[in-house]
Amino acid sequence: MRLATSYLAIILIIGTMLTAIVAQGTGRKTVSKNAVFVSDCVVTIIVFLSHLKGPETIVCYDPNEAYDDCGPACGDRTCTNQRKNDSACRRSCNPGCFCRGGYVRNKSNRCVPSYMCQSMG
């Protein structure tokens, strides 16, 4: 939605500038008609842009997760692979919700402190 708001501001500025340009050196009736036309165009564009949606917002529901644009391509560490060397996974990235530092995924797919894995067997 931030993107659409930026477009709206730009369009309003352009519309105001066009109205001022049209007003220079023309008769009153022409200025009035052109100003109405420019205003109608601006309103039409605003209505169109207000229906555009920005990128979908990803919500992480687990309080121990955080969204990352460039998370590990192999996914989160788990209780079973938390000590595995994953240097190959760090070279590429995926957007998504990942466990915060010090947390790993358990069998229930929840982010838990890594020390809890030993007590879960």
From TrEMBL:
Alphabetized InterPro entries for the sequence: Ser_inhib-like_sf, TIL_dom
Gene3D superfamilies in the cross-refs: Laminin
Domain named TIL: residues: 62-117
Pfam families (UniProt xref): TIL (PF01826)
Coiled-coil region(s): none
Keywords, sorted A to Z: Membrane, Transmembrane, Transmembrane helix
UniProt keyword annotation of Transmembrane helix present: yes
Protein origin, superkingdom: Eukaryota
Transmembrane segments: 6-23
Protein name: TIL domain-containing protein
Organism the protein comes from: Anopheles coluzzii (African malaria mosquito)
